[in-house]
Design a protein that fits this description.
Elements: E1 2-5, E2 17-21, E3 24-28, E4 55-57, H1 63-66, E5 76-80, H2 81-105, H3 115-121, E6 125-128, E7 134-137, E8 142-149, E9 157-163, E10 166-170, E11 194-198, H4 212-228, E12 233-236, H5 242-255, E13 264-266, H6 269-284, H7 292-296, E14 317-320, H8 330-338, E15 345-348, H9 357-363, E16 369-372, E17 377-380, E18 384-387, H10 396-406, E19 410-414, H11 418-431, E20 436-438, E21 445-447
Parallel strand pairs: 3-4, 4-5, 5-6, 10-11, 11-19, 12-14, 12-15, 13-14, 15-18, 19-20
Antiparallel strand pairs: 1-2, 1-21, 2-3, 7-8, 8-9, 9-10, 16-17
Helix pairs in contact: 2-6, 10-11
Length: about 450
């Protein structure tokens, strides 16, 4: 099998992996880099010139895995049934964002795709149920593809590929622990010849006392303390998965009287996706979510005009995207106003790239100046800034244990920063010294 990582910068970003197997040309994901703009945000598809793609396989619907599908207009696109219900809404939202950025920032390449192209793309999107084996016959051979629940977010799948006697397993983004709205990953046990695994949390050691239950309790305590001292609490969240999960958690806390009474604000794509999650929950039994949560919590929309650098002083809980405080998002603008008030709290509940404003804020010291460059606001770090271990990605030891039990001859490391991959490479070399561990250099062809 030939393998090329098309994510031009490596790490976590424009995720896309090319596999050539048994005469089939397969693309695993086709994403956009959330921190880059224009063509630099796409994978580098140069190695695919002159090749006909037989199939694109989507592991889940975060934009860093689906945002460059337009680049392959002829190939069929395979995903889970739940992802099929979400993907067009996610792509339409991205088209809207790019149109706005083109107008505001004069980015010549934008939009990378239009609403009309998303509509045309819909005709080649195919959804499969988890555990449903699908066979594809080519000129030379046949492959079998099976999706397995990967946790992480609605529709997220690990991909099992069978070619003759050979088994390949691709974890995608994975979460083994049960969440409030979504059960954890259910992976097959036993041998695979090749394992391609995510490594997101490879550089993060979770302390024993930071179980998911303990972190949820700590989050509620922090929200209560913040509201009771007259402040506001900002929860930056990813629109797909994290917002719905957090709303369900807050709903439970309110129901069991573990959350003080306060206004709750939410808006944007994440709130719109509530209806999609309700639909998926009813039609696939893949989720545990009901749209009535929004009504029960009496969610308020954000004020139409949030002024950068101004504290709204609502003594409220804000659940808004983006999860990493990416520039020119509601959470970024709100944070610019909340950070300078010691009564407030900004609490992160997911992965934060160290180069994003969220990642930089987590490293900042209290009292230091912090620049919100995109809105020309500088503020002292006076608010409490906390991280809660509620990531949608698997703990590194869980992934390591799964990797070891596969007995794979080759393990390929993906979707992780250099330090995260290095931890996995070192641990795997010690645990299974006979296995080849590959951390692919972007755009280099490997024979696996």
């Amino acid at each position: 099998m030939k393998l090329i990582d098309l994510n031009r910068d490596g790490g976590i970003g424009a995720n896309s992996l090319f596999l050539e197997l048994g005469g089939f040309n397969l693309l695993i994901d086709s994403g956009l880099h959330p921190k880059k703009a224009g063509r630099r945000a796409t994978p580098d598809f140069t190695p695919l010139r002159g090749k006909k793609l037989d199939l694109i396989i989507i592991t889940h619907c975060h934009l860093d895995h689906i945002g460059s599908l337009r680049e392959h207009p002829e190939a069929a696109v395979l995903m889970t049934t739940s992802s099929r219900m979400l993907i067009e809404r996610m792509l339409h939202n991205s088209a809207n964002v790019m149109l706005r950025q083109k107008e505001e920032e004069n980015i010549a390449d934008y939009p990378l795709f239009t609403h009309e192209e998303v509509e045309r793309c819909g005709k080649r999107l195919v959804g499969l149920n988890f555990g449903q084996a699908e066979h594809f016959r080519g000129n030379k051979s046949e492959i079998e593809i099976i999706f397995h629940p990967a946790g992480h977010v609605a529709g997220a799948a690990a991909v099992e590929i069978r070619h003759g006697q050979r088994g390949i397993f691709i974890t995608g983004d994975v979460m083994f622990e049960n969440q409030r709205t979504l059960n954890g990953a259910k992976f097959p046990t036993g041998h695979f010849d090749t394992l391609i695994t995510e490594t997101t949390r490879g550089n993060t050691e979770r302390a024993a006392e930071k179980s998911r239950g303990a972190e949820l309790a700590r989050l509620m305590t922090s929200i209560n303390n913040t509201i009771q001292r007259g402040g506001s609490f900002l929860l930056p969240v990813f629109a797909l998965g994290r917002m719905q999960e957090i709303l369900a958690v807050i709903h439970d806390a309110r129901h069991f009287r573990r959350l003080v009474d306060c206004p709750i604000y939410a808006s944007g794509l994440g709130l719109d996706l509530v209806d999609y999650f309700d639909d998926i929950s009813r039609k696939t039994k893949h989720l545990q979510f009901n749209r009535s949560i929004v009504k029960d919590l009496k969610i308020h929309p954000l004020p139409r005009k949030v002024i950068p650098g101004k504290d709204l002083e609502q003594n409220a809980l804000y659940v808004v995207s983006s999860g990493m405080l990416v520039e020119k998002t509601p959470s970024y603008t709100l944070a610019s106003g909340l950070l300078g008030n010691a009564k407030n709290t900004i609490g992160f509940v997911g992965y934060c790239d160290p180069d994003t404003p969220g990642g930089q804020l987590l490293l900042a010291n209290r009292g230091e100046p912090f620049l919100f460059e995109a809105v020309h606001v500088k503020s002292k770090v006076m608010a409490t800034v906390e991280r809660f271990e509620l990531s949608g990605h698997a703990d590194r030891h869980e992934l390591l244990q799964f990797a070891v039990q596969t007995g794979a001859r080759t393990i390929v490391l993906t979707h992780g920063d250099p330090a995260a991959r290095a931890w996995f490479a070192e641990q795997l070399a010690a645990a299974i010294p006979g296995t080849k561990v590959l951390d692919p250099i972007p755009l280099k062809t490997y024979q696996v």
